[in-house]
């Protein structure tokens, strides 16, 4: 059993899509074992996305992530990291497969509705960024 960090991004919380996105996770067999709605500061967004700090869109990405509330959550299941990325779809919604969250809901490559950890090591770090062990109720 594996765990991954998911974030429902500002474009999706603004459009009241939290429940529809959670239904996609649950239908795929992912269990939401922790979840909270928070508003990131620019500092927190910058720290979370530090790996992207040399990319040209870093400033825009951090401003977007701090622009409105996000829902951070831990998803648990068999191959949860890969399964979540499959349900999310490609980064750019134009390339995302039918039925994926990004195909159905994302506005653009930047405002793409969800984040998901990309590997076991990053999942561990990203979960610890937002949650204490006591908050994970599997
Ligand atoms: P995450 O799950 O959010 O990490 O998405 P990803 O792994 O599919 O994409 P990647 O890690 O390459 O990029 C991280 C995030 O940066 C993306 O989800 C987008 O929100 C944003 N991003 C990526 N490329 C662009 C871009 O060309 N322009 C803008 N504005 N944002 C981008
Ligand atoms: Mg990524």
UniProtKB/TrEMBL annotation:
User: What does it catalyze?
Assistant: a 2'-deoxyribonucleoside 5'-diphosphate + ATP = a 2'-deoxyribonucleoside 5'-triphosphate + ADP; a ribonucleoside 5'-diphosphate + ATP = a ribonucleoside 5'-triphosphate + ADP
Keyword field: ATP-binding, Cytoplasm, Kinase, Magnesium, Metal-binding, Nucleotide metabolism, Nucleotide-binding, Phosphoprotein, Transferase
EC category name: transferase
Q: Which GO terms describe its cellular component?
A: cytoplasm
Q: Name one Pfam family in it.
A: NDK
The EC number(s) given in the record are: 2.7.4.6
Principal localization? cytoplasm
Asked if Phosphoprotein is a keyword of the record, the answer is yes
Q: Does the keyword Protein transport apply?
A: no
Q: Which cofactor does it need?
A: Mg(2+)
CDD domains to which the protein is assigned, alphabetical: NDPk_I
> Record's InterPro entries?
NDK-like_dom (IPR034907), NDK-like_dom_sf (IPR036850), Nucleoside_diP_kinase (IPR001564), Nucleoside_diP_kinase_AS (IPR023005)
The active site of this protein is located at: 115 (pros-phosphohistidine intermediate)
- Domain (Nucleoside diphosphate kinase-like): give its ranges: 1-138
Concerning PANTHER family, the annotation shows: NUCLEOSIDE DIPHOSPHATE KINASE
Q: How does it assemble?
A: Homotetramer.
Q: Which family does the record claim for this protein?
A: Belongs to the NDK family.
* Name by which UniProt lists this protein: Nucleoside diphosphate kinase
